[in-house]
Amino acid sequence: MGGDDARLRAVVSLAQAMAAAHTPRGCWRAAALGACEALGGSFAALSVWERGRGRLRVLVNAGERAEGEEEFPDEETYPVHQFPEITEFLHERWAGGGEPDAWVETAEGPLEPEPAGDGRGAGAAGAHGYGRGYCHQRVASLRRRGRGCCVVAPIVLHGRAWGELYVARPAGEPVFGRRDADFATVLAAVVAAGISQTERLEEVRKLAFTDPLTGLANRRAVDMRLDEAVERHRVDGSVVSLVVCDLNGLKWVNDTHGHAVGDRLLERFGSVLSRCGAMLPGALSARLGGDEFCLLALGPGADEVVEVATELCGRAAELEFGNGVACGIASTGDPIGPVVSARRLFRLADAAQYRAKAARSLKPVVAGRDGEVLRLADSPPKPAHDRRRLRGNRP
C-alpha cells in the first residue's frame, strides 16, 4: 500500500501544481515535472499533435535535458508519419473502441512478454498498452541521448487525441514496467484535465483583454501595458510612444449605410493598424472604444514611430467609406517634458489627436513638435457642454 499511497500523493501534487500555474508554459512545465517525479524518471516532455501540419510539436522538455534540448523549444517538431502509433494507435485504435493506454519503448528495441506478477521494473509486453508500440525513431532517440527507456502516454482532450506525455529514464536504470505504464495513463488523464482548465482560463483572459469586433487589444490591455512601459522609461530611459487615432466619419457611415458597414470599416481599419504596428517591434495595436484606436510602442525612436503613423494615415485614407483618421502622437523621444505617469502620455497624445482633428490634418500631429499641443494638454478642464474633453482631464 505504501507504493499506492505515494502514487496517490503524486497525482494530487501534479493536479495542484498545474492548477497553480498562471500561464500555459507554467502549466506544461508543471505537468512534465510532476509526471517525471511521479514515475521516477529523469526527463519528461509534453507534446501536442498539430493535425493540420501533420506533426508532433514539443511544448516543454523538463528534467535532465540532453545537449541541444531546450526547455521551451521554438521549433522542435517530429512528422507524425515517422511515429505511426500517433495516427494509428492514438486515433484509429482508440476511436475504434480501444483505450488510450500508455506504452513503453526501450533502447534495446521490442519488449519481451512480461512474466506473471505485478511487472514492477520488468521489461515486457502485454495487455493494457504496455509495450504495444515500437518505433525505430524513438529507439534511436533514446540511444542518442543516453536514455534506456521511456513510457509514452496519450493525452485525450475533448474526446480526441491531443498529444502525448513522455517520461524517460537513463540507460542502466530499471525499465518501466506494466504498472508504470498503467500509472502513466492515469497521469495523462490528470494532465489532460489541467490543460483543459488552463485553456479555459486563457480564453477568459483573452476575452478580457481583446476587442471582440476587431480582434485588437482593448483599453484594459493598453492601460496595463502603458503602465509597464512608463515604468520601464523611468528606470532605464527607454522611449515610449503612444499614437492615438480617431476614425473620421464613422457616424456618417453608420447613419448612411448602416451599422454593419460601419463595423466593417472598423474591422478594416483595425487590420491596417495591425499591419502598420507590425513595423514597430513589440508594438501593441488596440481599439480604445467606439471610433478610437491607439498604437503603443516601447523602444523604437520617435522618428520611426512618426514614420509608421504617417503611413497609417495614408492607408486609412484609402479605405472604402472612410474619411481617413485624425492621428496624434506623444513620445518620450520628443521634448514633451517629464513623463512620470501613463496618464500624462495619454493626455499629450489625445491633445495631439484633437489638434489633428480640428485642423483636418492628413498627417499625424506630434506633441512637442506642435506648440499648441502641450498647452492644450495642460489647460484646465473644458466646460461640460463642450462636445469633447480630453481623456484624463475630466472633473
Automatic annotation (TrEMBL):
Organism: Streptomyces brevispora
Domain of life: Bacteria
GGDEF domain mapped to chain residues: 238-377
GO cellular component, one term: plasma membrane
InterPro entries, sorted: Diguanylate_Cyclase, GAF, GAF-like_dom_sf, GGDEF_dom, Nucleotide_cyclase, Rev_trsase/Diguanyl_cyclase
Positions of region (Disordered): 373-395
One GO term of the biological process aspect: cell adhesion involved in single-species biofilm formation
Biased composition (Basic residues): 385-395
UniProt-recorded name of the protein: Diguanylate cyclase (GGDEF)-like protein
